[in-house]
Amino acid sequence: MNSQIIIKDCLVSYSSQGQEKADYCLLFLHGWRSAKEIWQPVMSKLSIVNCQLLALDLPGFGSSPAPKQPWTVGDYAEVVKGFIEKLELKNVILVGHSFGGRVGIKLAAKYPDLINKLVLVDSAGFAMPSPRKSVLATAAKIAKPFFKPKFMQGLRKKIYKTMGAEDYVATPELQKTFINIVSEDLTEDIKRIKTPTLIIWGADDEETPVEFGKKMNSLILNSKFLLLPKAGHFSFLDQTEGFVKSITEFVN
Predict the structure, then answer these.
(1) How do strand 92-97 and strand 117-121 relate by DSSP bridges?
(2) Which of 35, 104, 150, 198 is least crowded, fewest Cβ atoms below 10 Å from its Cβ?
(3) What is the pLDDT of residues 230-246, one digit of tens each?
(4) Domain of 13: which CATH number?
(5) What was the pLDDT predicted at 133?
(6) Is 184 or 128 the better-scoring residue by pLDDT?
């Protein structure tokens, strides 16, 4: 079921599955230039007793309008915080992919009592010291694999339509937002995370190298690192069965 809600003057679109006010809640955050639909293959296979599944369109993506001014990772974290509080979600297990992982890191570091468990999937989090042009080229590269899996081809036009434009990253607001985000090094935030954390990585990820995941694992005391073979940056799509199994074991 798709719904919308106002959080901090932002219209946020989200999808939900399962019983409201369940004992547990899995909250999925997508990567840069992606959308909530990216999690559907995972959500359709998850079967956890008394657990609600929710996926957000972060502001500027999917059906959630772009912010009116450049944002930082912290701004996105505040929206997710507001979402959790407004829906009165309890025992939240936050699952963040790539850019969504950045948001999860910031949230877990700043509000340790808000999240019960954290799952970082091929997560970003370390600063990218690249020139502006290279940074924007990287944004396009990260978004490209979104439509590689065959089963995602049917969603291509739908996603582009809800995003409003194929080259959405070219809008001035998101260009500046992207620069803000990839320029922020979250190392100190990562060190502050006390929440039980599962770090899942694709063994063949070329966008966020496996070394990033291992580094996060060494910085987060209460964490476990899992490598999915024959999987790239979108490891949860490349190895959905293994991903779902790992999430299920982590929740229970």
Answers:
(1) parallel
(2) 150
(3) 999 999 999 999 999 99
(4) 3.40.50.1820
(5) 44
(6) 184
User: Do the Cβ atoms of 98 and 233 come closer than 8 Å?
Assistant: yes
Tell me the residue type at 47.
Answer: S
Provide the residue range defining the domain that includes 147: 2-251
Cβ-based neighbours of 198, under 8 Å, separated by 6 or more: 117, 118, 119, 120, 223, 224, 226, 246, 247, 250
pLDDT value of residue 49: 81
Q: What is the pLDDT of residues 71-112, one digit of tens each?
A: 999 999 999 999 999 999 999 999 999 999 999 999 999 999
Q: Per residue, what are the HEC states of the chain? A: CEEEEEECCEEEEEEEECCCCCCEEEEEECCCCCCHHHHHHHHHHCCCCCEEEEEEECCCCCCCCCCCCCCCHHHHHHHHHHHHHHCCCCCEEEEEECHHHHHHHHHHHHCCCCCCEEEEECCCCCCCCCCHHHHHHHHHHHHHHHHCCHHHHHHHHHHHHHHCCCCHHHCHHHHHHHHHHHHCCCHHHHHHCCCCEEEEEECCCCCCCHHHHHHHHHHCCCEEEEEECCCCCCHHHHCHHHHHHHHHHHHC
Q: How many structural domains are present in the chain? A: 1
